[in-house]
Amino acid sequence: MVTQSDSEIEHLPSTDVTIVAHDIGAVGGMERQLTELILGLRRLGHGVTVIARTCELPAGSGVVFHRVRAPGRPFLLAYPWFMVAGSLAVRRRRRGVLQVTGAIVLNRVDVVAVHYCHQVGPVNASRSTRLFRGQVRIARVLKRLGERLCFHLNRASAFVCVSNGVAAEMREYFPALAQRLITIHNGVDTETFAPGVRGEDARSMRAALSIPAQALAAVFVGSEWERKGLEPAIRALSLTPEWTLLIAGGGERTRYEQLAEQLGVGERVRWLGVTADVQLVYQLADAFVLPSSYETFSLVTFEAAASGLPVLATPVSGVRELIDDGHNGFLITRDPQLIADRLSRLATDPELRKDLGRAARESALSFSTERMVAQHHDLYERLRRRRSVEVEVPSG
Length: 396
Prior knowledge:
- This protein is an alpha/beta fold.
- The chain has 14 helices and 13 strands.
- The protein starts with 5 loop residues before the first helix and ends in a 6-residue tail after the last helix.
């Protein structure tokens, strides 16, 4: 009995994988995860096809890239446009195991990577204007509808969640998929993100940022500043005169500059902007702080831990799976006083900073990129074998 056509089986040679995403590159947590996955699969010998709007990979990576010609913004136009154009591209270009990044195409696929469950995730408005917030709310409705449609179409697929927290959200909002859920944690490049003696480059960068050689620097990394808690971080700074705050990422800078000035800490805030070399930022710092209200994995927290920094973060998804309060960092709230108290403890106890940083590094090693890639490889092999078994040619 043939349960699947020969033409469909041809889409699943053992070494071929197709990755579908909006964007792949060095900036953005999800984009960097996809980059590491793709390059890791290539190192394991997989043939990789990428179908995306943009794809920035190292020269000579050997990846076949098919561009989806679709706008990147505004979202209300870009999302449905890519869903249609991407679906057509997948139909023509797919090879092997097909993995899509969320609810972005209407094809039947083998793997859905769930980096974010939009049924529960908050409204992420990076600007505070009424018009922009209204657009974000409409976008959220589109994302929710897209999830329901695409997940229903692929209810027989494997759903790979990036953390136990995301898997729990999926079980709550999509109970019919509970048996299809797999957790494969995002991976951190523990070689790029590693502790190190503050070298000449780091000292020069601190000098260029007017950070005194012996001053303490806490780093905040991320965009969507309202959700990630930049305001409580700045308010905590006003209660801890020992610290300077480094801010890497993009957001509504004028608003937060005004807040810092009002609190009298403008001279102790450094605005670094969006950077593709975030590992250098961690080398400048003595602690990492992220009072986020919601995360699905919080890659920057894992990168900071791998870099040997004491972590101060709220117990959101991902962070709960990494931080043991008082052992490798501090679990905090968005209360500026609590954040300031923890920073003050670190300021007065250099040995505590070192102990927490070493333990954070040790914990992060369990979430390496290599482990993440190997788990995807194993999943693809299981899918390939299952598809092979499903094709049974009757004897006699």
